[in-house]
Amino acid sequence: MNENILGIIAGVLTSISMIPQLIKVIKEKNVDDISLVMLLVLISGLSLWVWYGFKKDELPIILSNAFAVLVNISLLVSYMIYKK
Amino acid sequence: MNENILGIIAGVLTSISMIPQLIKVIKEKNVDDISLVMLLVLISGLSLWVWYGFKKDELPIILSNAFAVLVNISLLVSYMIYKK
Questions:
Q1: Which of A9, A28, A45 sits opposite B10 (nearest CB)?
Q2: What are B33-62's pLDDT values in tens digits?
Q3: Fewer CB near the terminus (10 Å): N or C of chain B?
Q4: CB atoms within 10 A of CB B9
Q5: Main location per UniProt (chains A, B) (predicted)?
């Protein structure tokens, strides 16, 4: 498989993976079983991947991680709202 | 910053991010708020990133995603055990 297509498919999957989690949280308004440390470490790491993508000039890495940062920041905001 | 060091730091952060989630699940034996679809899509995507890493011959991508696959498979096994 062409490596750019592979990177784009991989990127789409890892980017959208947190969307079902976000939908579940918004629907159930419950975040008790979700780890805040996980979210914070993940957002930091994904942001560094965006930076890495710019340095290597690799669009699949930049786009997928930038999108994943947005989804996880939404999850973090939901966490703050729904955490008892 | 050197791009390989940047990639390694980014990789370490995204790889270890699910460890606090795994510890939380094992301690509390509760996975009700975790999305199974998220886990399945994430494991598929991370596996493709490993493949991408091999094609591009980029060690930070291979190592961090392979480790993340392992952590998320552990989380999936925990999910199967603790899901009511």
A1: A45
A2: 999 999 999 999 999 999 999 999 988 889
A3: C
A4: 19
A5: membrane
Q: Which of residues 45-64 of A touch B (CB under 8 A)?
A: 45-46, 48-49, 51-52, 55-56, 60
Cβ of A7 within 8 Å of Cβ of B38? The answer is no
Out of A9, A33, A37, the one facing B33 most closely (by C-beta) is: A33
Contact A74, A21 (CB under 8 A): no
What is the ipTM score, two decimals? 0.83
Q: Shortest CA distance to B44 belongs to which of B79, B69, B61?
A: B69
Tokens of A76: 């973090």
Domains of chain B with bracketed CATH: 3-82 (1.20.1280.290)
A28 contact partners, CB below 8 Å, separation of at least 6: B33
Distance CA B40, CA B38 (A): 6
Rounded to a whole number, what is the distance in Å from the CA of B53 to chain A's nearest CA? 9
Per-residue pLDDT band at A15 (split at 50, 70, 90): confident
User: How does the average pLDDT of chain B come out, rounded?
Assistant: 92
